[in-house]
Design a protein that fits this description.
The chain is built from 15 helices and 20 strands. With 506 residues, it is of the alpha/beta class. Helix 12 (357-369) runs parallel beside helix 15 (473-491). The structure holds 4'-deoxy-4'-aminopyridoxal-5'-phosphate.
């Protein structure tokens, strides 16, 4: 009998639960800057995108996801016979090492690159060699993980594999090298925001694709993942926000005395001698970054998350305690999928985007005047009208608020505000009572304003009185949301260390 032996395997960093336990935080307070993945899922990742795949989930896709392969081929201007799908581009890294270097040699360009290549070489019984010209297989990581740089592609006699996991951020690719026999690897895990779905693909000439697919399991991508990838690729990629955020973060890190390397990716590499100490210090704040020999790698997320990282770095530098990290929660129902991050007190960094422009604007006003940092993004079945989404966004926000309030210790508890908007006047009184009560009169109501406040009171467990009158329903609602925000800001101010109730709890 053959006895397989275990090899050194790819090491996953510890889970949120393990880290939270270690540093004494809630797992939801942990923010991962160590995975080079998008801060949020794409807007296309919603239940409706999966409905058809679920209806057929008892079946195999006999066409091996023809529409997905066709969409990929079209995106890159290649033939459908030049595309192979896999469970992440990691599947191809392992497969190609076996296929082209079994018992032989593998080189990587640059030499300091993605840790999966040596594991794949070991699985193929291949040696890692320094000189790409002598290797049977050369992985060119372009742009490179973990340094973010864009290496030159060498001319080599061996098989060239150009791993373009991050090429969407660089805005350049090497697809033309496919005509010279190179294999290009791509993934839905990074710019498309679908790391958990595990979909990657290889592009090569059709003969090479035939060889690759003949060595794969018949259908390694699930139909649900293929559906998510197909929905994502239907919209042209726009990485401009992420690229701008990368440059902002690089600038902020520079002003903190660090020197990030110019990056063509969604992460930054900061050379330093002993990065492990800083990794441990940041972890105490729930901020997880990754140490390498000679540097620190930080994934760029979005403004709200990245500001938590910057705050933590400042706290480490100044030896201070951190303001409570942003609370993060997800709310998913058959009707909507919402992603909420809330921080109180915050600095009015608000972004609400559910596709309902008017109520997005209303909640933004409330959070801004409430002195909060709120990022609430979601998608849902707006086809049926505003009702589901307005209700769910207020439930999600209310639940996050309830949780952020914790035991409500040290808070003023009561707040009141009067806010006019032109002819409209709103009056709001709030009590962080722990009991859900809403007495609301909005006249005229643009539709869902009163219901929105009821959902908020219910889920944040607060008492809310709102009266708003005027001529124009938009003015009336806007005055009301601002008044509730201002009343909340007052109730949320710090007032000693007591739970403001003779009962001792709220
Ligand atoms: N290539 C590079 C350079 C990577 O950094 C990663 C992800 N860490 C991958 C490939 C694998 O991506 P996936 O398997 O999720 O497609």
């Amino acid at each position: 009998m053959r006895r397989p032996v275990a090899l050194a395997s790819y090491q996953w960093p510890p889970s949120n639960e393990v880290i939270a336990e270690k540093v004494g935080l809630d797992p939801r307070e942990i923010i991962r800057f160590d995975g080079n993945v998008a801060a949020t899922p794409p807007a296309s990742a919603r239940p409706a995108a999966l409905a058809r795949a679920l209806a057929d989930v008892n079946e195999y896709d006999r066409g091996r996801y023809h529409s997905l392969r066709a969409a990929i081929a079209q995106r890159h201007g290649v033939g459908i016979d030049q595309v192979a799908l896999g469970a992440g581009s990691d599947e191809f890294i392992v497969l190609l090492a076996r296929l082209f270097a079994e018992g032989g040699s593998v080189a990587t360009v640059p030499a300091f690159s993605y840790s999966m290549y040596p594991f794949a070489a070991a699985m193929a019984g291949a040696a890692i060699v320094d000189d790409p010209k002598t290797a049977d297989l050369v992985f060119v990581c372009r742009p490179n993980n973990p340094t973010g740089e864009l290496p030159e592609i060498p001319d080599v006699p061996g098989q060239l594999v150009i791993d373009e996991a991050y090429a969407d951020y660089a805005g350049v690719d090497a697809l033309e090298r496919v005509n010279d026999g190179a294999i290009v690897l791509r993934t839905f895990s990074k710019a498309y925001g679908l790391a958990g779905a595990r979909v990657g693909y290889a592009i090569a000439n059709s003969e090479t694709i035939d060889i690759i697919t003949s060595r794969q399991a018949p259908l390694s991508v699930s139909s649900l993942s293929a559906a998510l990838a197909l929905a994502a690729i239907a919209t042209p990629l726009d990485v401009s926000t992420q690229v701008a955020e990368r440059e902002r973060l690089a600038g902020e890190l520079t002003s903190l005395g660090m020197a990030p390397v110019k990056s063509y990716t969604n992460f930054l590499f900061i050379p330093m001698e002993e990065p492990q100490e800083l990794v441990e210090q940041l972890m105490a704040y729930g901020v997880v970054v990754r140490a390498y020999e000679g540097g620190l790698r930080i994934s760029v997320k979005d403004e709200l998350d990245d500001n938590v990282l910057l705050d933590a770095l400042r706290c480490v530098r100044d030896g201070e305690t951190m303001p409570r990290p942003a609370l993060r929660r997800r709310r998913a129902t058959a009707e909507t999928l919402l992603n909420v991050r809330l921080r109180i007190p915050g600095e009015g960094r608000v972004f609400v985007n559910t596709g309902l422009g008017f109520y997005d604007h209303m909640l933004q006003q409330l959070a801004f005047h409430g002195g909060m940092d709120l990022r609430l993004e979601g998608v849902g079945d707006l086809e049926t009208g505003e009702h589901h989404m307005v209700e769910d966004m207020m439930i999600a926000f209310g639940e996050a608020l309830d949780e952020a309030l914790g035991d409500r210790r040290g808070l003023t508890r009561y707040g009141e505000a009067r806010v006019p908007m032109d002819e409209a006047l709103a009056h709001a009184v709030v009590d962080l009572s722990g009991r859900a009560t809403a007495t609301i009169s909005i006249s005229p109501d643009p539709g869902m304003a009163a219901h929105a406040f009821q959902s908020l009171a219910q889920n944040a467990r607060i008492t809310l009185h709102v009266t708003a009158t005027g001529e124009n329903d938009h003015h009336v609602a806007e005055a009301a949301f601002k008044a509730v925000g201002r009343a909340l800001a007052q109730a949320l101010t710090r007032d000693g260390t007591l739970v403001r109730s003779t009962k001792g709890s709220l």
